[in-house]
Amino acid sequence: MLYRELGKTGEKVSILGLGTMRLPVIDGDNEKIDVEKAEEILKYGIDNGINYVDTAYPYHGNSLDKGGMSEIVVGNFLEKGYRDKVLLATKLPTWLVSKKEDFEYYLNEQLKRLKTDYFDIYLVHDVNKTVWPMLVDLGLFEYLDKIKEDGKVKYIGFSFHDDLDLFLEVMDSYDWDVVQTQMNYLDTAYESGLTGLQYVSSLNIGNIVMEPLRGGSLVNNISPDIEDLWNSSEVKRSPAEWAFRYLYDMEEVDIVLSGMTTLEQLKENLDIAERGTVNSLSKKDHKLIEEVTLALKSKKMNGCTECGYCMPCPEGVDIPTCLKEYNRAMMFVDANAVDVSRYYYDVDENSNASKCNECKTCIPLCTQQLNIPEELKKVKKVFGR
């Protein structure tokens, strides 16, 4: 296992982090974790050098309003002599916070679930424009200072799913230790993107990357044209290795999180991590990754460039986000891609395509001359509502 320094924390972390959002389950029920198989994954990963375990309040739950089983299973396992071998990360469920007292309530509940006295990493989960102003008004910064001083948390950070402008605002609002953002070779201009990744690094803040395989979309049920591109390389690598190595190649990246469902996936990812050194990909490698990216992006279902000239919508529809997530969902053969995009599309249900009343105000404003109301009908058909 290779290790890198987690920003200014000085912690030496395995470049592969073990995410516990997609543990093996029984009979397809997300809440019924197969504990024996899950513990086998955790044990094998840690015994083979992984020292960063990531969980969160809702993981392996069937509702965001109730806690999932991930924290409980992880806590029970770590209690068996593994707690001191890892940096343990979990997250504040921001969507459940409505009053100041909720901060402390959920932290204490998570400490009990994970059977520990402290968290190495505590992240403000899923920061977006809907929850961020409310959290600040409730005294988030003062609370984060307090739990750090009390020793309940060693390092403070946030995970992010919104646009670059908000990301920069959040970054500059507090003295963060770590930041977790989405990144893969397809998402360089998505959400905070490469610009955000580089900004985090410039401040010597720990850089944690999630969704290296974009929920599996970059490796599952690959279309023949994309498969042919990968196979054209003189150096033979699996689609998973191409995706991971793209990230490991960057000096800005400290940890790449992967939610592994099987022991076989874990073993493959551990093997890939052995070759995950900075600047280890050639110019030819990077050129091929660019070709694959362009091929995927050419599968867009509409010509939206996300310029935003159609905004604001009189009914509050976030037109660029609706069309963007629809395009992304349709790029892949893998059905899971629709679920991944639906999640981001539905972050704020008051701005999705169902709010369109076909007033057509947006049509003359579109630089690509799209019939936006008709495109939004397609979006609604795929994502619901």
Q: What secondary-structure arrangement, pairings included, does this model have?
A:
Elements (H helix, E strand, L loop, with lengths): L2 E3 L6 E3 L1 E4 L5 E2 L2 E5 L1 H13 L4 E3 L15 H9 L8 E6 L8 H13 L5 E9 L4 H6 L2 H10 L3 E8 L3 H8 L6 E5 L10 H10 L3 E5 L13 H8 L7 H10 L6 E5 L3 H11 L9 H15 L21 H12 L5 H10 L26 H12 L2
Parallel strand pairs: 3-6, 3-12, 6-7, 7-8, 8-9, 9-10, 10-11, 11-12
Antiparallel strand pairs: 1-2, 4-5
Summary keywords:
two-stranded antiparallel sheet, 385 residues, TIM Barrel, 8-stranded parallel β-barrel, alpha/beta, 2 domains, 12 strands
Structure overview:
It contains 14 helices and twelve strands. By secondary structure, the protein is of the alpha/beta class. It has two domains: 3-289, Alpha-Beta Barrel (TIM Barrel); 319-383. Strands 3-6-7-8-9-10-11-12 form an eight-stranded parallel beta barrel, surrounded by six helices. The longest helix has 15 residues, at 283-297. The mean pLDDT is 93.
